[in-house]
Amino acid sequence: MAAHPAGGASEAADLYVLQSEPIELASLVSRVTGPGFGAVATFSGTVRDSFQGRGVLHLEYEAYEPMALKILREIGGGLRERYQIGRVAIAHRTGRLEVGETSVAIAVSAPHRRAALDACAEAIERLKAELPVWKKEFFADGAVWRENDIRSGVAPPGVTARGGRAEPPG
Asked: Is 0.85 surpassed by the pTM of this model?
């Protein structure tokens, strides 16, 4: 059974952004709230201070913006097909982020909590698997690029793609 937007919500009210400035979760929540939505589910991913036992100093994110925005819209559209939701807002940071800063935030509204929670959970899983964003983790003893599993194999200028996975510059 296909779900339909609730409360007169439309994709035009959704928000998908890449930004170099800090993400304000409250502004995403205010973007998705409305009188027909009894639930708002959120996810906020922050830069942690360690990874696999190594201390993280900071991160840098790079994105292939035209494709990333297209993928974010596709993710939102997919959520609308599977869940009875209201509005979706997804923001992802680019540039340098310090420990504790928000790197990605998602807000999904719906008439009922289960749809909002399920859609929000699916949104972050799909984002991590599909979004053309590259993360460089800086440690005291060096730096490492990490990548999402980009389904398209299309890479930004200066980045090569092998076997359907993009490799960051470097």
From this structure: no
